[in-house]
Predict the structure.
Amino acid sequence: MAGNRHILPGALALILLAAFPLLPVPPFWITLANNIGLASLVAIGLVLLTGVGGLTSFGQAAFCGFGAYTTAVLTTAYGFSPWMTLPLSLAVGAAVAIPLGLMTVRLSGHYLPLGTIAWGLAIYYLFGRIELLGRYDGISAIPPLEIGSYRFLSGQSIFYVIWAFVILTALGAQNLLDSRVGRAIRALRGGSQAAEAFGINIERAKLTVFVFAAVVAALSGWLYAHMQRSINPTPFGLDMGITYMLMAVIGGAGYVWGAIFGASVVLILKETLQRVLPGLLDTTANFEMIVFGILLVGILQLSKEGLWPFVLKLLPRSRRSRQLAEPSSQLDKRDMPERGTPLLRIDKVRKQFGGLVAVNDVSFEIKAGEIVGLIGPNGAGKSTTFNLITGIASLSGGGVAYAGQTLSGLSPREIAKHGVARTFQHAKILPDMSVLENVALGAHLRGSAGVFRSILRLERKEEATLLTEAARQIERVGLGQYRDRPAGDLALGQIRILEIARALAADPTLLLLDEPAAGLRHGEKQELSNLLKKLRSEGVSVLLVEHDMGFVMGLVDNLVVLDFGTLIAQGKPQEVRKHPAVIAAYLGGVA
Amino acid sequence: MTGSLLDLKNIHVSYGHAEVLHGISLSMEPGSIVTVIGANGAGKTTLLNAAMGVVPSTGTILYDGKPVPRSVEARVAAGMCLVPEKRELFGSMSVEDNIELGGFLRTAAERNETRGELYDRFPRLAERRKQLAGTLSGGERQMLALARALMSRPRLLLLDEPSLGLAPKIVADILRIVAELRTTGVSVLLVEQNARAALEIADFGYLVELGEVKRTGPAGELAVDPALMESYLGVG
Amino acid sequence: MDATIATFLIQDGLTNGAIYALLGLAIVLVFAVTRVIFIPQGEFVAYGALTLAILDTGQVPATPKLLLCFGAVAFLLDLWSWRRSFAMRDLVKNIALNLGLPLAIYGAVLYLAPLQLPSFIRALIAVSIIAPMGLYVYRIAYRPLADASVLVLLITSVGVHLAMLGLGLIFFGPEGLRAAPLHDGSFTLGPLLVTAQSVLIYLMTILIMVGLYFFFEKTLLGKALRATAVNRLGAQLVGVRTQLTGSTAFVLAATIAAISGVLLGPITTIYYDTGFLIGLKGFVAAILGGMGSFPITAIAAIGVGMVESFASFFASNYKEIIVFGLIVPVLIWLSLGANHHEED
């Protein structure tokens, strides 16, 4: 995601862009380029929302409308100057998005787009019915933008304003993605469990990206009003909302520059269809609807990533590894509790599913600086016990206390704040993100930078500290050489190690590992075992759920054995191993 | 290899970049019970899923001497049936409907015939006919999963951990039923963690470790092989 | 407002509500079985109504030709998907379904359209032209995406909606049409004038609901559809093909939409883009039912019809705004009740 990969083509594109209005091109080319710029703004927001955040909206045109009408009313009826209305237009966009976002972020993913369809229609009718907004005739005589005495009246002049905003927005979006907040947004696609486990507030991340998309759409509307200098409800209807979605889909999931590409493809295609087809087919029907519809379905069927990745392949790229800035400060480290003091107390925890008792009044304790293994055959209730501790499942009875505080009833996010970090049985990583970024996700709670600081790159110091910490954890677990590779390139064993590094980045006092050795080869298990021993010597306490007896035997200080949800043995590994109930549980009693 | 009912040759399965089965071969005769045993994460479930076509694999799968059909449904139609580890019952539908759907690809006459046999074999299910599958106990769920599979009149039953989470008494019941199936001409490929119980009823066994076959042999020999204990409880 | 107006508004709301209920049920059905949010449903409604209106004039509508095109595309896609493995038996079945069926319907319409048949037969013809389109639309647009996320399927739906809307504009033109009533009788019930058409709507709605109930409770195919909705993998493992349940759900939904169209066509003027707005009202009801509950959806649909009817009396300018704005309290309600949903 770092920008320095495309500096040369970027600079070239910028020069071409700046020279474009000066070339002897037909005026409608300039208009088209302006419209592409306006649409690109909306599409950038959608790319972030859909491609990065895994949410979607068909109502972006309505947000353009809010931006446009805000400035239109204020400048024509109340004599505001256009620049003064800019912040107000954006604020109105945000103010509309926040309640709509709050209503839908807690629901499954399809409610937001469905809501925006209905919402988009309602708003369109509203624009057309309100007297103040000029009903369907709209508002005209909107003043142009001006700087000093220069008025941006011509298409050529406003071209520079529009595209300056487009480039600034794209860079801002790029900056946002390349930050702590951006990682949180990108983590949304990996499912909520992993994100929650590292303290990311999912609802807030969703809301953030939705509001961002709405604000850039409002910006587009504000520019549109001052370019067109008259507005009516038509361009703010659902049709346009769907067209924006098509642009984002063509641009591809998660590519900020792809949004501009998508906007260009769609608008140039529309222009061509409107100019060429009537001549060929002797009809004035708008075929672009059919073409756009088929295009939308076709692209989703053939390449869910959109078309931009194909363009990217044509660009030169270097695989330079990322240079980390020297951090100026150290992250705070948690005080490790004194070795041997009680850390986690599991007190008669119980879980019932209907009539099924999955975990039956299990109690045990973990002391600081200890590795405890929770073992048992498949279906013994290990994972359920684990989920009860991590807050993913709710207790039917009993309690969990951590360093004297009650954990029971807390959400995974709140548990993370107490310094409890975990890994997952089915590794939950973001395969497209680099190993470094995946691990940095673990350090989420150790930073505090928000959206504005991220967009404006004011959080670079903190970001450098977080990334350095992530890099340090990657070295610590021995994945240093893979730091800048996409996490999806790693082998299963390495992914498990990556998850441990991510958990370590949270500076935990207690590490919870869910079957870390499953699927590992012998040598890999040995390395994992050594790593965990090293961590113990540094004061980290570990609870690991494991099936593999061989793996835990030489590693743990204490073993807890479950069978049928009940604790059947507990103690030093060598003793537990000889316990007849344990052998029977593992190999099965003779039937 | 004429005469084999199922022939897996050099099966590889990967999830993303991670390969979990590294070329497993297995063969079973008609009318036999073959068990695949091994510790967690060995790849046993993946092997069954690959045989059924639930996960994509590379390598050759011959069923009845011919390449196996591509889709899961076509494999069911050809007489293969998988009882998965998680049972995958239709929780909000009645026991009766679950069983009925097991015979989706059979004619009404065949369904009527098999249904009668099944209720005789699983009287517990007959009692709970109208109850929702989601309200059954663990043992009853496993019975229902087995009954639903038998409703498709399979020639080859793929059983994934039928003993999972069940009390020893129920495990014994279920394995007894599995052993009886052989007499009705159904062959069984049984994945089990409960190695002793599985080897007790099987003819032949494969010990799988980390995606590879570590030992094969007649069930009786495998049961006393030290490699078995080592694989399960570790070298320590 | 006096009692006469109130009863009139209630009747109006009930009539529209019954249609929204049908559409809402079809939406829930398609979503449960295929995870597709069936946005193009409204186009099927419009196609049904407009096809009937053209049949009323004794002309041949363009929709049978469109059906032929859909079938041909489905046929070509099937051919392409068989490029590696090919079976003669499948080919024959495929030709019959994708080419034979549309051709037969096309031929029948050509022959029957000018005959001045009774209105019920015309309605039946209109439904039989539109219903098979569900099959082909599923094959062409959705089947290749069977494993995609709900979100991708939703965007696909919007694409299908757009394409079908554009096709509707080409085939039916921008002018609205109104079909002849299936029965033009009416009678008075106390102070109320009840038209036969609205009675027909109530009857059909009840009939379809009862029919769906029997289908899902009593037939093996219906149970297979439910099973797919409950547990996709489980359904596969008993040999229920995703394609079969998907096609069935789409044909059912298209049939329901087409019937709604021919019921609605005579009581209001339908434009090529009216269907979308009608379908969305079904959506508001389905969303209130959490996209999963048939009874709540049906009741909510009647509610939507009532709100719309009263809104058009008290605030006719803001009718659509109020109806679509209904989604806001609905979402708040759902959101308050929601625990955490894991995205699929």
